[in-house]
Amino acid sequence: MARKKIALIGGGMIGGTLAHLAALKELGDIVIFDIAEGLPQGKALDLAQSGPVEGFNARLSGANSYEAIAGADVCIVTAGVPRKPGMSRDDLLGINLKVMASVGAGIKQYAPNAFVICITNPLDVMVWALQKYCGLPPEKVVGMAGVLDSARFRHFLAEEFNVSVQDVTAFVLGGHGDTMVPLIRYSAVAGIPVPDLIKMGWSSQEKIDKIVQRTRDGGAEIVSLLKTGSAYYAPATSAIEMAESYLKDKKRLLPCAAHLTGQYGVKDTYVGVPVVIGANGVERIAEIALNDEDKAGFKKSVDAVHGLMAAAKTIAPDLA
Ligand code: A3D
């Protein structure tokens, strides 16, 4: 069987980390595409030279022309600009929409059969725009945010309970950003839900509330520390988990920004919900029961995404 082909569109901090992880995991041959001349070629060469030491079999190349992504099985999109301190994800809207238009055209022409994972912010609107620009079926175009947001939640919970991160599962719904909805009762340590752990005296509601807030602000916390950009290790590893589920038909149930067609009462919108990712892309959307508080939180989140979609349509009338 021929090796799979992974196209990384955007070769910056996340793009380079994606290439490293995809090579170490031998997911396939890797092409890094970027508009910056020399950058993708340099990163690909550097990474290829780590191959003999690590012992991975993967061909790495860099390119400034979309032809190089021809026939890709997976495209992971990070092209655009990240946040600087003081900027919100939404401040990136105008500039990154233009980037999505050119990336979408490139994918449409050269990789129409790919599974596309968008990471560029503001995530929920960018993945919606990218799907329109590339014209691929909505089940083949998803956004990465929920895996990262729930990983952040899991990390903080594991620290709080002083247990292995391996035993902590967590669930986050809604848009990527300040309105994301971490679901406490679906979050657990080895099957014991967090509310039960509070009753057992392992933590307090106040501490868990603080963790929820820290999860919501997880990206901004890293931006303010790094000062020159945003998180990249955890975002990259989260997208690779999604790509692996597609390439190996693992059928993982992962929170992703998926195209809703009435689920949760929402239509024609990309927002974070639990989905099964397998060889057909998004194979199923899990519609879990929400209580009134979760419903209100989810609605607030969807309203925020709709607000940005409306702004996007005024900037780019071709999206209307
Ligand atoms: P960065 O290191 O700046 O890399 C972006 C790359 O995109 C640069 O190498 C640019 O040259 C390249 N680029 C710009 N315009 C184009 C274009 N038209 N075509 C191709 N390449 C282009 O940023 P990063 O890797 O740190 O972040 C990438 C994106 O991910 C940003 O929009 C971040 O805000 C976003 N991000 C999202 C999450 C989520 O959880 C959704 C987390 C962290 C970062």
UniProtKB/TrEMBL annotation:
It comes from the Bacteria. It catalyses: (S)-malate + NAD(+) = oxaloacetate + NADH + H(+). NAD(+) binds at G10, G11, G12, M13, I14, G15, D34, N96, I119, T120, N121. It is an enzyme of class 1 (oxidoreductase). GO terms for biological process: lactate metabolic process; tricarboxylic acid cycle. Pfam families: Ldh_1_C, Ldh_1_N. Residues 148-304 form the Lactate/malate dehydrogenase C-terminal domain. SUPFAM superfamilies: LDH C-terminal domain-like (SSF56327), NAD(P)-binding Rossmann-fold domains (SSF51735). Belongs to the LDH/MDH superfamily. MDH type 3 family. PANTHER family: L-2-HYDROXYCARBOXYLATE DEHYDROGENASE (NAD(P)(+)), L-LACTATE DEHYDROGENASE. Catalyzes the reversible oxidation of malate to oxaloacetate. NCBIfam families: MalateDH_bact (TIGR01763), PRK06223.1 (NF004863). This is Malate dehydrogenase. It comes from Aestuariivirga litoralis. The gene is mdh.
